[in-house]
């Protein structure tokens, strides 16, 4: 068993979440200090900087840093340049193809790339914003993630298609678990029980 204070688990929430969600994982990682990050930015470069700074501060206090990231929090984490500092990661419903997500949304609202480039930022009827700067950043900074990672995905996830998450998981450092009937947001009693059992199973070898 790892000694108390030797390891820390950093939790990065998804859209609309908060650092308080990190508390759920205390019972699952009794050998870790638990830390959640309430990031203030909403761009991959901005949040990435906040994550990077937090990881660097934790690195000076403990030996092992583990990561749990939810939804867009996983996307931000993969853009943060923290690979060398993370021992192992767990991604819950990760956004792994942001370019596809943005271009699909553009098609939904009948928006061309030239229009987005000209206007810079466009607020859609659904209340979200599409940004040309954001899209350009994603294209110029493709994801490179080499950290051993376990991935949990719901078969009814409406944001990340099954083919995309399957392709992303075809890597000897990544494993994919699919919950039949699971949604993008794991929140029901059944879903959270499945999540907890997944964490316990995939973290078993890291407890010694």
Low-confidence stretches: none
* Largest pleated sheet: 6 strands, parallel
Structural class, from secondary structure content? alpha/beta
Rg, rounded, reads: 17 Å
Q: Whole-number average pLDDT?
A: 94
Number of strands: 8
- Approximate shape: globular
Distance between the termini: 4 Å
Number of helices: 7
> What proportion strand?
15-25%
The largest beta-sheet arranges its strands as 2-1-3-4-7-8
Helix content: 25-40%
Can you tag this structure with a few keywords?
20% strand; alpha/beta; globular; 208 residues; six-stranded parallel β-sheet; two-stranded antiparallel ribbon
Folded structure, characterized:
This protein is an alpha/beta fold. It is 35% helix and 20% strand. The protein has seven helices and eight strands. The strands form two sheets. A six-stranded parallel sheet has the order 2-1-3-4-7-8, with helices on both faces. A two-stranded antiparallel sheet has the order 5-6. Helix 6 (162-169) links the parallel strand 7 and strand 8 (174-179). Helix 1 (44-59) packs across helix 2. It is globular. The protein starts with 6 loop residues before the first strand and ends in a 5-residue tail after the last helix.
